[in-house]
Specification:
GMP Synthetase, Chain A, domain 3; five-stranded mixed sheet
Length: 511
């Protein structure tokens, strides 16, 4: 059964916004006193909060599905719907939040940080809020928008000051138990530590945390053992403490060769951009288990070689606590120096300047996509997509209101520029967007002029005939009628028609 989890996929569903209300106030002697439909309430957000009291993601591993409350719908008499309750999820300090594609959203590396990971939907406006001097009694209201629904990834990277690294059974768990009040599992077989352990150490006036990660072995960078998988927990450490086993009975192993293997595996671990590589951080060496006579002699033998490499070496025993006090104070000096550097870096950090967005920012784009039946014009943008989600397409007045909003935003102008014509297929939204057969709203019909520049075909159609032209057209019609009657007479005289047929034709011609 899992007791430590540092990777979790959360399935989140934020609350939907409530629908607005369509209502008309009715009182005695005031049958139509005006619209009084209330607004819908906003859906509840899902917020991540970094809590120092939380040390694992185990609770989210067992219950990964989380949802917040929906907003209430509006009601008459200007009663707005209730807002959905916000859902707070406490996560350990050092949790990195990523989207399903692996892109980092936020690094919650400080206590008390809050991040809205799943925003709730926006409540729809009631018809009272939509009324204006030109639309005094709207017969529609806006719908609430859906809240965020999707997955996020949580990755725990423990925040510690000192990281203990070394071979399995080197005594790291015993050392952290001797230095702090931590109670890790200790046994006489390798890979006893299956998950990182944290301990708090007090050295004089300095308090710092120590992290013990599973042991590293040769080939860990290729997937062997457990240590490399948990090295993310030492990415934030200020310094490294190499715990070397001086009493190992395995053939071919000694403190120097163990250190070389560990350094090689640390060099193979890629740290995130902007962080100091693990081997470039301050490092100390602890030669452990000197309570064993042979181990004490081996520690004295290799000490000079390690110091020649530039390391500070401490001979310790996690069992007898020999040499632990000077080691704890040496680690405290490294932590203090790192904290001073961090304060100086924060003081030199450039100020964040928040600039307002441009007023003429269109907030949307028109993309032309080819299709079997011609081009498809897809409109992408926060405002158009939200407006479509708020529209009740069973209400003609609501659809007209949407058309007015889109035209005022400049959507039709951009469609004209993109080459759209009346009847073109327009999609608002992404994969499951709303499809329209576009009928442009014409204000002056100037948008549809296709004549050469400098000419206007509408002016060519305004030529009125003169009086002489109308007289000539009249005489032409009379001559055509007279010729038709003469043709009938000739046909009768030739015996092609009877007298009755001739008289009927004369009546038909108006004689």
């Amino acid at each position: 059964m899992a007791t430590f989890v540092d990777h979790v996929t959360l399935h989140l569903r934020a609350g939907n916004g409530g629908n607005g209300c369509v209502s008309v106030k009715r009182e005695k002697f005031k049958p139509l006193a005006g619209p009084d439909g209330g607004n819908g309430g906003n859906g509840g957000d899902i917020v991540l909060v970094s809590d120092p009291q939380v040390t694992t993601l185990l609770g989210y591993h067992r219950h990964p599905h989380r949802s917040s409350d929906n907003g209430g719908f509006g009601m008459g008499d200007h009663r707005s719907g209730y807002a959905g309750e916000e859902l707070e999820l406490a996560v350990p300090v050092g949790t990195v939040v990523k989207d399903p594609a692996g892109n980092e959203l936020i690094d919650m590396n400080e206590p008390g940080m809050r991040y809205v990971v799943a925003p709730g939907g926006i409540g729809g406006l009631g018809n009272a809020a939509l009324a204006n001097p030109k639309r005094k009694a709207p017969g529609f209201a806006l719908l609430g928008t859906p809240g965020f629904e999707g997955d996020v990834l949580l990755e725990l990277k423990t925040v510690a000051d000192i990281a203990l690294v070394g071979y399995p059974s080197a005594g790291k768990s015993s050392l952290i138990a001797a230095l702090s009040a931590a109670k890790p599992k200790i046994a006489d077989y390798p890979f006893t530590t299956l998950h990182p352990n944290l301990g708090v150490v007090q050295a004089g006036d300095v308090r710092y945390t120590v992290a013990d990660v599973p042991g590293l072995i040769e080939g860990a960078s290729e997937g062997k053992g457990l240590g490399l998988e948990f090295l993310r927990h030492v990415e934030r450490c200020s310094a490294l403490l190499h715990v070397l086993d001086c009493a190992t009975l395995e053939p071919g192993r000694d403190p120097i060769s163990d250190l070389d293997v560990i350094l090689g595996e640390l060099a193979a671990y890629p740290v995130p951009e902007g962080q100091t590589p693990l081997l470039e951080r301050p490092q100390l060496i602890a030669l452990n288990k000197i309570d064993v006579p042979d181990a004490h002699e081996l520690a004295d033998f290799v000490r000079s070689d390690l110091e020649a490499r530039g390391y500070r070496v401490f001979e310790i025993s996690a069992v007898s606590h020999e040499g632990l006090r000077p080691l704890s104070f040496a680690l405290a000096e490294l932590v203090e120096a790192a904290r001073r550097e961090q304060v100086a870096a924060e003081a030199a950090r450039p100020r964040i300047v928040i600039r307002p967005q441009a007023v003429d920012d269109s907030k949307f784009v028109v993309k032309v996509e080819g299709g079997s039946d011609g081009n498809v014009y897809r409109i992408l943008g926060a405002k158009p997509e939200r407006w479509v989600a708020q529209t009740d397409f069973n209400n003609d007045e609501a659809v007209g209101f949407l058309a007015d909003r889109l035209a005022k935003l400049g959507v039709e102008d951009q469609l004209f520029k993109a080459g759209a014509v009346a009847g073109s297929t327009v999609v608002i939204g992404r994969d499951n967007g709303v499809v329209f057969d576009w009928e442009p709203t014409l204000t002056s019909t100037a948008e549809l002029l296709t004549s050469p520049r400098g000419s206007d075909p509408r002016l060519d159609a305004l030529n009125r005939p003169t009086r002489n032209q109308r007289r000539e057209e009249y005489f032409e019609r009379m001559d055509a009628k007279a010729e038709a009657r003469a043709e009938l007479v000739r046909e009768r005289e030739a015996g092609l028609w009877a007298d009755d047929d001739y008289n009927d034709n004369k009546e038909t011609d108006g004689e």
